[in-house]
């Protein structure tokens, strides 16, 4: 009798350890592949937002000077494929639309590495989970100044996974909300900098584009940077003073909840006036409760399935096992989703 109980205890312990190992592997798989589904859905939403905002801007915003040529996201992709584009010259009186954090602001196309994404305003983790993010306070595409865009490298669609493969002369196309496609040409080989080296986002007297992502792959100990120069005439627009950027966005897998601020943008400032929410700290503490709740729900469902299996005849146990796995899948997915928000900047 005692021997039977010991065997049962060893068997259940083994099954528990195997289950925990499988859960860990599933979480890694979620990080690398599952987040892509979330990003894909977000990109679909951003595409609709971009079209709506572009249509509204076309009816309200003043026309550019006579050298301007209109373009759409579709035209942007087409020009990227053909390698040709007509650059508009700017007007000093132009007014560019204000976009709330987390909303579509540009369409980015990099044919050399297969990037075709909509860019959101903001680089907090919640923003980067939707797609590449525009550093608030940096210039807008086509403007004189430095346009800063960050993106994930291994999770949430990994838009900048191949960023290190870009070389001098490669083309980068950005379509703005006014319907104009701007061509940037990579000016030098990718470089690696410290996460605190925010000098690469400093404003420039010419039109420049700076792309950043975490480095090396599957880590975030440094940042990979690609710099490009505008081909054609830039737009001279007077903008508000840029907020100080404390650290480069990593494209990590965690998320932060940005605080509300004036001008429909989200900027959370410290007493020193530095912008936070750029992956300088850990994840969102608000994700603890839902992560634990969904995790506990998955555990209870699995235990219920295991108990039910012991009461069933052998030929029914497989059916109960399959049903138990299916029942655990939903709360486990939601647990992973919230656990991702808890992670500090990493991948």
The CATH architecture of the largest domain: Beta Barrel
Helical coverage, percent range: 25-40%
Give the integer mean of the pLDDT values. Answer: 77
How do the strands line up in the largest sheet?
1-2-3-4-8-9-6-5
Query: What ranges have pLDDT less than 50 throughout 5 or more consecutive residues?
Result: 62-95, 252-282
Q: Total number of β-strand segments?
A: 11
CATH superfamily of the largest domain: Sortase
The gross shape turns out to be elongated
Please explain how this structure is put together.
With 347 residues, the chain is of the alpha+beta class. The protein contains five helices and eleven strands; from the N terminus they run ααββαβββββββββαα. The chain has helices spanning 2-60, 73-82, 125-128, 288-311, 314-342; strands at 104-110, 115-121, 133-134, 145-150, 171-175, 181-186, 191-193, 207-215, 222-230, 244-245, 274-275. Strands 1-2-3-4-8-9-6-5 form an eight-stranded mixed β-barrel. A two-stranded parallel ribbon has the order 10-11. Strand 1 (104-110) and strand 2 (115-121) form a beta hairpin. Mean pLDDT is 77; it is low at 62-95 and 252-282.
């Amino acid at each position: 009798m005692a021997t039977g109980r010991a065997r049962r205890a060893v068997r259940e312990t083994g099954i528990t350890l195997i289950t925990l190992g499988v859960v860990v592997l599933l979480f890694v798989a979620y990080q690398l592949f599952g987040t892509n589904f979330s990003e894909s859905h977000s990109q679909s939403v951003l595409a609709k937002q971009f079209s709506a905002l572009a249509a509204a801007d076309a009816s309200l915003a003043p026309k550019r000077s006579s050298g301007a040529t209109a373009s759409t996201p579709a035209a942007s992709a087409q020009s990227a494929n053909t390698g040709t584009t007509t650059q508009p010259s700017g007007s000093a009186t132009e007014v560019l639309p204000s976009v709330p954090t987390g909303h579509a602001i540009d369409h980015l196309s990099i044919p050399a590495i297969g990037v075709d994404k909509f860019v959101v305003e903001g680089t907090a983790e919640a923003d980067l989970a939707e797609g590449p993010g525009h550093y608030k306070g940096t210039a807008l595409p086509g403007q004189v100044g430095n346009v800063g865009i960050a993106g994930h490298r291994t999770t949430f669609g990994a838009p900048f996974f191949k960023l290190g493969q870009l070389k001098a002369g490669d083309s980068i196309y950005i379509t703005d909300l006014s319907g104009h496609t701007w061509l940037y040409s990579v000016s030098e080989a990718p470089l690696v900098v410290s996460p605190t080296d925010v000098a690469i986002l400093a404003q420039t007297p010419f039109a420049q584009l700076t792309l950043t992502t975490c480095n090396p792959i599957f880590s975030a100990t440094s940042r990979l940077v690609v710099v490009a120069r505008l081909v054609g005439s830039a737009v001279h627009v007077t903008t508000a003073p840029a907020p100080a950027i404390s650290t480069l966005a990593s494209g990590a897998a965690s998320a932060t909840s940005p605080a509300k601020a004036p001008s429909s943008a989200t900027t959370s400032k410290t007493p020193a006036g530095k912008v936070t929410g750029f992956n300088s700290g850990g994840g969102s503490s608000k994700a603890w409760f839902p992560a634990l709740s969904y995790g506990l729900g998955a555990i209870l469902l699995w235990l219920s399935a295991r108990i039910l299996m012991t009461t069933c005849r052998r030929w029914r146990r497989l059916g109960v096992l399959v049903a138990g796995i299916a029942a655990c899948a939903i709360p486990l997915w939601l647990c992973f989703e919230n656990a991702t928000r808890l992670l500090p900047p990493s991948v």
